[in-house]
Specification:
Layout: H1 2-29, E1 33-38, E2 43-48, H2 55-64, H3 70-80, E3 84-90, E4 96-100
Antiparallel strand pairs: 1-2, 2-3, 3-4
Amino acid sequence: MILDKLKTDTNKSDQDLIKFSSILATKTNEGFVVLERNDKLPYAILIKNQKKVNHIYNLLIFCFTLGLWIIPWIYISQVSSKAKKILIAIDENGIPFEEKCF
């Protein structure tokens, strides 16, 4: 009885670790780099470096579109080009979650 429960717990933790590793593999394929990882808890902190914005190119597009490009240009420079840091973990119920780190 106790041995069966121990096997079930071990299988569940192995499945959680496999799930965690697959999420990490997906994120690293998206360009994130693992900053810190702990397989016992399991959690990982990932970082995606800042993108460089080509402002001269955006200025040319801005001029050709008669100023309509200002909204995407602001979004590109202020939001999407920033470095991103996220925490990926699996809670005690085996459910993976992702949160932004500040």
